[in-house]
Amino acid sequence: MSVTRTSLTMMIATFSIAGCAKTPIVASAAVPAPSAALRAPSAALSAPPGSVAVSRAEARTPAAGSRPATVAERPPLSEFRTIDALKDIHFDFDRYDIRTDAAKVLDADAAWLNDNSRTLVLIEGHADERGTNEYNLVLGDRRAKATLDYLVSRGVQGSRITVISYGEERPVCRERTEACWAKNRRAHFLVKAE
Questions:
Q1: CB atoms < 10 A from the CB of 182, how many?
Q2: What is the mean pLDDT of residues 187-194?
Q3: How are strands ordered across the β-sheet holding 119-126?
Q4: Distance of CA 143 to the CA centre of its chain
């Protein structure tokens, strides 16, 4: 009788723990917990609460002949505007790799950015509401950085680009459906003329 009761208790505990998982499982690559640097937005970028701002210009050596950019040189986020010429790209659930359909959109975005080389670019990374706030901030950051890396591979100067993650904080759709969540898993572009 004691063995049956112990087995039943263990089985109930196992199902309770397994049913309560909040953080989604990553299929392509593990997203580690963010470092303290990712949790604290940069004051120099005037990032709103709940966002993560990271300048890639500091992490990259500028190309020969390009002017090095620093976070302090970036205009306030409020000076960046959305334009119709640059289209959002979307990501699969729990992934930050660039899909084939997104690559075609980014190729067109890169062509526009190369033709308009005096613009600064802000890439916002977004996630759907599933997962913790901290997890979604990191996932949004990785999506924005993957987008930046793709654009740089197409000739766009990395010193012109800043990335920021809003995680799940700025959804474009608020329904609790897969179609709506898919719209929220995105990288969004804003620009400012230099």
A1: 15
A2: 92
A3: 52-55, 161-167, 119-126, 186-193, 89-90
A4: 4
Q: How many angstroms separate the CA atoms of 179 and 49, rounded?
A: 27
Q: What is the CA radius of gyration of the chain?
A: 20
Please name the helix (run of DSSP H) or strand (run of DSSP E) that holds residue 193, with its range, or none: strand 186-193
User: Six-digit token pair at 20?
Assistant: 């309560």
Read off the DSSP letter of residue 168. Answer: T
Cβ–Cβ under 8 Å, residues 169 and 74: no
pLDDT at 77 over 70: yes
pLDDT at residue 7 tops 70? no
Range 26-193 classified under CATH 3.30.1330.60: yes
Residues contacting residue 181 through CB under 8 Å, at least 6 positions apart = 93, 128, 129, 130, 173
